[in-house]
Amino acid sequence: MDTKVNLAGVELKNPVMTASGTFGSGEEYSEFVDLSRLGAVVTKGVANVPWPGNPVPRIAETKSGMMNAIGLQNPGIDVFCRRDIPFLKQFDTKIIVNVCGKTMEDYCEVVERLGEEEVDMLEINISCPNVKEGGIAFGQNPKAVEEITAEVKKRAKQPVIMKLSPNVTDITETAKAAEAGGADVLSLINTLTGMKIDIHRRAFALANKTGGLSGPAVKPVAVRMVYQVANAVKLPVIGMGGIETAEDAIEFLLAGASAVSVGTANFYNPSATVQVAEGIEDYLERYGFEHVSDLTGLVK
Amino acid sequence: MDTKVNLAGVELKNPVMTASGTFGSGEEYSEFVDLSRLGAVVTKGVANVPWPGNPVPRIAETKSGMMNAIGLQNPGIDVFCRRDIPFLKQFDTKIIVNVCGKTMEDYCEVVERLGEEEVDMLEINISCPNVKEGGIAFGQNPKAVEEITAEVKKRAKQPVIMKLSPNVTDITETAKAAEAGGADVLSLINTLTGMKIDIHRRAFALANKTGGLSGPAVKPVAVRMVYQVANAVKLPVIGMGGIETAEDAIEFLLAGASAVSVGTANFYNPSATVQVAEGIEDYLERYGFEHVSDLTGLVK
Amino acid sequence: MSKYKGQAAVIFQEQIATDIYSLWIEVPCMASEAKPGQFLSLYTQDGSKLLPRPISICEIDKLQGRLRLVYRVTGKETGTELFSRLESGDTLEVMGPLGNGFPLENPGRAFLIGGGIGVPPMLELAKQLPGAKQIIAGYRDELFLTEDLERYGELYVATEDGSAGTRGNVLDAVREHGLAADVIYACGPAPMLRALKAYAEEYGIVCYISLEEKMACGIGACLACVCRSKETDSHSNVHNKRVCKDGPVFLSTEVEI
Amino acid sequence: MSKYKGQAAVIFQEQIATDIYSLWIEVPCMASEAKPGQFLSLYTQDGSKLLPRPISICEIDKLQGRLRLVYRVTGKETGTELFSRLESGDTLEVMGPLGNGFPLENPGRAFLIGGGIGVPPMLELAKQLPGAKQIIAGYRDELFLTEDLERYGELYVATEDGSAGTRGNVLDAVREHGLAADVIYACGPAPMLRALKAYAEEYGIVCYISLEEKMACGIGACLACVCRSKETDSHSNVHNKRVCKDGPVFLSTEVEI
Ligand SMILES: Cc1cc2nc3c(=O)[nH]c(=O)nc-3n(C[C@H](O)[C@H](O)[C@H](O)COP(=O)(O)OP(=O)(O)OC[C@H]3O[C@@H](n4cnc5c(N)ncnc54)[C@H](O)[C@@H]3O)c2cc1C
Ligand SMILES: Cc1cc2nc3c(=O)[nH]c(=O)nc-3n(C[C@H](O)[C@H](O)[C@H](O)COP(=O)(O)OP(=O)(O)OC[C@H]3O[C@@H](n4cnc5c(N)ncnc54)[C@H](O)[C@@H]3O)c2cc1C
Ligand SMILES: Cc1cc2nc3c(=O)[nH]c(=O)nc-3n(C[C@H](O)[C@H](O)[C@H](O)COP(=O)(O)O)c2cc1C
Ligand SMILES: Cc1cc2nc3c(=O)[nH]c(=O)nc-3n(C[C@H](O)[C@H](O)[C@H](O)COP(=O)(O)O)c2cc1C
Ligand code: FES
Ligand code: FES
Which residues form a coiled coil (chains C, D) (predicted)? Predict the structure, then answer.
């Protein structure tokens, strides 16, 4: 049985990775899972300088989901390179660094800096709904997506994953724009913008007013978008949004994803990633598939 | 305590209505709730001619939600006027007829026909994701929204509610387009397009491949959009999407809705509508609000 | 109000075969109205599972106000798995009785045919239907409810693996024993119902079949659970009937399956 | 691996005041490691409620491998309401022990100050902290855990409505009884902690406070639960510390509250 997947020339031992921002840089979760069992660890978004993030409350529970407005708090690329990359190098897994920024220049600075580091891929977050500048402002406009993809690609030493926002009328447009800009891989979905109001305090549940909805609640939207994108572009797709179990992950693979990320589920099941990887193996065996890649896009 | 709300000149005894398609024309639910306790009954969408709807399976359960692809099955306007309107006239509630169509002409035909009937308002569904023509094709394009609103308004004898799709990048654009077209009221959200795959049969869970996601899972997205729209237009807004309890309904009111619709919750709690109406009264009393309209848009 | 929605008391639950559970609940107002072939909507207590699980009535004890449900656990983390953990003293949210049920005027010799998890509704039907009854129950391998069934009619069993009764399906059992009837009452998987529809046409006999479809409201309002009808249906004004309200029992001639 | 995530056995639960429950669970690997001031993440069995409910450790019974949790049900349909229905024999999913806990080197006379649902962690702290302890517990009206607390130190009570002890807050009780200390350990609502921070500054004494914030991961990875730190934090490289991992106990001087 072959669980390997190839994303733009990078070979992952299996298609299971972590969703950015839900796993730190892996340190805290290494107490619960052997990071070497994962296809890749995708780090929390990192910017050129440290970001303090948003005021608290930063999260709120919703039915079968949660909203977050962390606001991309991060220690900046210097500390990240000094501390987080060496930590991850101890494990036999691929390192994918998620990059955020407020301006085109911010993104480019981080991407250039990472060219010198031993990381395997870059994931460019142009879809964070929780910061005023940057993020989603890029991700909702196909022209801007193409532009930033092209600029990043010019500077990147590693293959580039563009992370798409689900808060759009037609996700195939931004997907095609990223493809036109030269993206190597697409990942989706980031969070859906949501809001919660505390009716007793008559105030927003999140200090930021709105937040990004994630978790099982959004899975049907995510599967639909992965299906649409996989059928609209030639690039490999990393699917995510509400994956808790191997069954969920397989749904994304069958819809067209080449790999998957586990996000919110880590919070309530710290071994979710490894369980997903194991469950995919069981499925391949049960139904007699030789390669996990045989599942990709099987349901049309 | 005053629970009355005024929508474009139509006075509802309270802000609680049913969401189109989740309550039929009220007959089946009249065994469980006194329809006269509701602000309004919004009927299942009706077209100029009978529609057979989509093949089964038409629904699938998802975490804290469900997907449907009923495909607007309806008996056509003739049977509807002969049977459903007289049934609803027996009750002391407002009648809002939800109208669907494949072409501009279809919508206009139904709207003209309803001009002769004793119904209180019309809700124009330009946001159904489950039919190829019509529906969402109109609802995702601001220009088309403005056009169809204007055409419908020319012919309508009753106030017109335009029902907006959440499957858009910026819902304030379609909201403003409906306002520009002359809409009297806006209602939102319709369902979010989703997909589910049965990994054991390796087939779509719905015959229609995609379906509309509804229920508590979508509430955060719905509250956010109601807030955005209420702050972008001058029209009253009817909020819906995942309302199960009075607490949920109050969240929508505080976000800016003037009235609310209960949809999917009817399926698992047939008395949900009346319980919501009662719970809103309790809230007004507990916090000393005199008018339910005082809640509208209180959280800014 | 003839439909009840509320809590039922769990009286007793036992596993009667692999993944098959038998559950007695007490809910007097429903038991007094229920008819064979009707079903209940069962609701889980897990807030993430919203929709009803429709389960047929297997037995009715009007005297004690109790109903028996026999159901299959369809997999891990399903609603039926949650139901299987219920114990005496627990409560279960239910709505019903729903649907039309089987007609009880017996026009002659009857076949009562159940396939797999379609067997349970045949038990109460066998108890209530007057006249001569030949009960044919088909299983993959493991039998259940056969001891209950044979008290109310001649029982014939078919198993796919031949481990009991006729090897094959229910029609194989009919042929093997040379059975004949004037009317068929059936519940089971679609291929079985299709075969019975053809059989009934061939022999020119009346055939009632109980259909299954995914449901949301369970009471006829949402139009989720339709089946194709031969003629235009008077309610829908198209060729669709609602399984939950117009059915689940239909004449085999009025629906296309 | 020092953190455990898995099932704990419910040994005994009782209601000890309006909406306040005391729950003993057995989970030996956690009991052997737990320290006062640490907390557990509790998970509901309702699939629609995903996030942990952080609850402080109230008592540790290392011998029997048990932990006591005392918590408040915050409303209808909440996770804590679901926990309140647990009975002996049930299981409960937990993770922990989490966070740093209170330092146990006692540099002199200590105040142990709990406000409302911040009282419970003071019990195990009182048991383990060496030296002279003055325990000040503040309540709105109804008392709980006072009989347990007075076994481990001098207990002073304050109630907002004056129904027991000093009318007012914990600092009113300190003043009324003319108490003094060299170090403060405190857990309770933000206004109380703010007042204690000011009090400690005024008297130039060390003050440890346990903070609360909404959590997702509970282990330091998601950055949901931050509080503002006075200096740049070495991990975050900004003025944020994680309540779940760097706390929940902080020196009052290192955080802005
Ligand atoms: C009128 C009627 C009577 C039935 N009687 C019985 C019975 O007596 N015993 C029995 O074991 N089964 C019966 N079934 C089938 C039973 O409803 C399903 O097996 C059950 O709903 C599956 O739920 P789950 O929680 O195990 O699965 P899940 O996968 O968790 O279900 C997800 C959703 O799909 C629906 N669903 C899944 N399978 C079916 C199905 N086959 N039919 C309808 N809805 C489905 C569920 O109701 C639920 O809404 C009947 C179905 C119908 C329509
Ligand atoms: C370190 C720490 C220790 C705590 N110790 C105790 C204790 O010993 N006893 C006790 O009764 N309470 C304690 N709390 C508060 C307790 O966590 C909340 O009251 C509880 O999570 C509310 O959950 P719910 O299911 O009742 O509410 P819901 O409204 O259903 O909760 C929704 C979500 O919000 C979170 N949440 C709500 N209120 C709080 C809060 N005040 N703090 C953090 N998260 C919250 C919940 O964890 C959940 O994720 C502690 C909090 C923290 C951070
Ligand atoms: C707390 C939190 C923080 C996140 N931070 C980031 C981030 O820094 N960069 C990013 O691209 N996505 C971020 N995301 C989005 C996730 O990577 C993922 O796209 C989304 O949560 C959907 O997957 P899930 O439902 O499995 O969580 C974050 C999500 C959560 C819940
Ligand atoms: C089964 C079903 C049928 C629906 N049919 C219609 C319809 O005919 N016309 C319409 O405008 N909306 C229709 N809707 C959308 C609902 O009116 C509502 O906008 C949506 O479900 C969100 O609300 P909820 O989460 O409370 O269900 C339907 C929804 C469901 C679940
Ligand atoms: S389930 Fe709604 S009509 Fe049958
Ligand atoms: S809860 Fe995730 S960092 Fe504290």
Answer: none
